[in-house]
Recover the amino acids of this structure.
């Protein structure tokens, strides 16, 4: 696998986030398989993880959008690529992609890109031109078929140039067998949730389109008597938080909702929950929460748009509902909470198997390596 090749991954920073996590996962996979690889960013908290893996990190000021600095970084990249004998670069964000593109033109070293999500298009002519650099690698990775279709329709990318590679869940972390009853009990006690109280949970930063307000409204519409709602994620803008709070203020006293901003053990939180929710009102490019919930064998209710349509099999591994429809969401939550134990167990088993087969880190990384090999073969 990539014998005598050196792979470089490039991204703006290594703080927290899905792009950063995917970069570290890829670096770990390459390192484990004996492939020399380097990561370039402006730095961040996750650099330490790379160092623990034995992966080299190079710090460069590549998050800038300043045209002169992008040009200057291109010269730095060209020098670095020649000095370190880089075989291929994998770039995951627009600003550094411009520098990598220029350096690639100077050195002849190929690069690939990953479209992790959707970029803004306002003002349309300027933004689209800026975004287009992410379509100009030898190959473009789309994290879902939904993103692939977006690349074809919005940017005119040839379908054969796009490799759809779903993101993966860490099945060593998101494994129900690794969460003990004691851990669940401790979290229940810490949150003051009684053992017989069903929990409906939603994980994700509060933002305009994540659907927290829709779920808050749905919690007031469900017929199930006893229930605790759990919102886990960083707070958003004052406008977003006010909208959510207005919905929460309408709930009857019997409907308790807990909002937690501090870091929590996600696998334990999943196992604490009877139902996990992804209520996005706009398409998720992929939707990692829905996959991680299924990996933990939890019932997931997600909106029937974007990447969730590819990761959740409606009625088999979870449920899909129309976006921005509190009543439909409430009805499905009632259905999930009232499932018979045998039906619930069957769905939880199917959900875990679905993720193991289709959305593991191992699969994501193996498919990415296969793409690297294909690019290097055609570029030689």
């Amino acid at each position: 696998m990539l014998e005598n090749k050196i792979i470089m991954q490039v991204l703006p920073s290594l703080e927290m986030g899905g792009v950063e996590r995917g970069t570290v996962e890829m670096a770990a996979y390459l390192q484990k398989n004996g492939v020399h690889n380097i990561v370039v960013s402006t730095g961040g908290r996750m650099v330490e993880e790379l160092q623990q893996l034995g992966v080299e990190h190079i710090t460069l000021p590549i998050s800038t959008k300043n045209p002169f600095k992008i040009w200057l970084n291109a010269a730095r990249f060209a020098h670095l690529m020649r000095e370190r004998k880089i075989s291929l670069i994998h770039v995951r964000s627009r600003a550094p992609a411009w520098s990598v593109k220029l350096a690639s033109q100077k050195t002849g070293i190929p690069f690939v890109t990953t479209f992790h999500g959707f970029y803004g298009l306002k003002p349309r002519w300027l933004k689209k031109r800026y975004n287009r650099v992410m379509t100009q690698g030898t190959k473009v990775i789309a994290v879902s078929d939904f993103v692939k279709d977006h690349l074809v329709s919005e940017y005119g990318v040839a379908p054969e140039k796009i490799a759809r590679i779903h993101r993966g869940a860490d099945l060593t972390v998101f494994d129900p067998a690794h969460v003990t009853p004691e851990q669940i009990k401790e979290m229940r006690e810490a949150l003051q949730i009684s053992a017989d109280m069903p929990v409906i949970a939603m994980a994700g930063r509060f933002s305009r389109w994540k659907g927290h307000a829709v779920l808050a409204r749905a919690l007031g519409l469900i017929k199930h008597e006893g229930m605790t709602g759990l919102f886990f994620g960083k707070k958003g803008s004052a406008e977003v938080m006010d909208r959510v709070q207005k919905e929460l203020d309408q709930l009857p006293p019997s409907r308790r909702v807990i909002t937690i901003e501090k870091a929590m053990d996600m696998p334990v939180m999943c196992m604490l929950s009877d139902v996990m929710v992804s209520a996005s009102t706009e398409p998720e490019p992929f939707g990692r929460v829905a996959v991680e919930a299924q990996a933990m064998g939890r019932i997931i209710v997600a909106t029937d748009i974007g990447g969730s349509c590819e990761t959740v099999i409606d009625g088999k591994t979870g449920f899909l509902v129309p976006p921005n429809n509190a009543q439909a969401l409430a009805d499905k939550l009632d259905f999930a909470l009232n499932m018979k134990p045998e039906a619930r167990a069957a769905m939880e088993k199917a959900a875990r198997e679905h993720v193991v087969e289709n959305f593991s880190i191992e699969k994501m990384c193996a498919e990415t390596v296969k793409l690297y090999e294909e690019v290097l073969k055609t570029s030689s």
